[in-house]
């Protein structure tokens, strides 16, 4: 079987073969992923972002679907040759990220099937243009860290601890599980978010950066995932941590 590009961002249809991950995920987690046959593109620190999120892939890169990928100008020199070597078409964003909110959120949109969630007052112009060409349905929220805040479960299902996002998406027919805040590490700030703590390893298996079973809302999360025939895999046995989403890019054809 050949490798192919994942058509719908975050939702592979088969076992993934390549993923984008924070460069700080740790040796044990790297080994678990590589032992599953997943090659990793590790991020580079984006010097303009604050330390907690400087290596988070979802802050600087947006997989648009298939071969198309958009990258913040801050870090494009590092990523462009890596992605082009894999056959991706690289688009450069227009917004140069800066350290403080909301100047750091231009690329942190959340794509769920045919919907996109973000605070669209601050979305990068090149990204916005691309989303409109794809006729995606925009869901405007006040939370700018949209992808960090949302774990994508299916084309119309998600998990979040953000009540504002939850209230908006259900108006669009998205099945949203609202969970307790906290319980997820993000060193340097109070807590991380569920979206940044996970990503799919194949069509059925959602991998978590740490022990999701210790989360206050674990039973709810497990029940919700079973409803969509999804399984859980803990990628290490440490406390759950937000590393800015495991982003699958290639899968088995």
Overall radius of gyration: 16 Å
Number of DSSP helical runs: 7
Order of helices and strands: EEHEHEEHEEEHEHEEHEEEHEE
CATH superfamily: L-arginine/glycine Amidinotransferase, Chain A
Strand fraction? 25-35%
Pfam families: DUF6873
Protein name: DUF6873 domain-containing protein
Organism: Clostridium formicaceticum
Domain DUF6873: 20-247
Which helices and strands appear, and what pairs or packs with what?
Layout: E1 3-5, E2 16-21, H1 27-35, E3 39-42, H2 57-60, E4 61-65, E5 68-71, H3 76-85, E6 89-92, E7 110-112, E8 115-118, H4 125-133, E9 137-140, H5 146-149, E10 150-154, E11 157-160, H6 163-169, E12 175-178, E13 198-200, E14 205-208, H7 218-227, E15 231-234, E16 247-252
Parallel strand pairs: 2-3, 5-6, 8-9, 11-12, 14-15
Antiparallel strand pairs: 1-16, 2-16, 4-5, 7-8, 10-11, 13-14
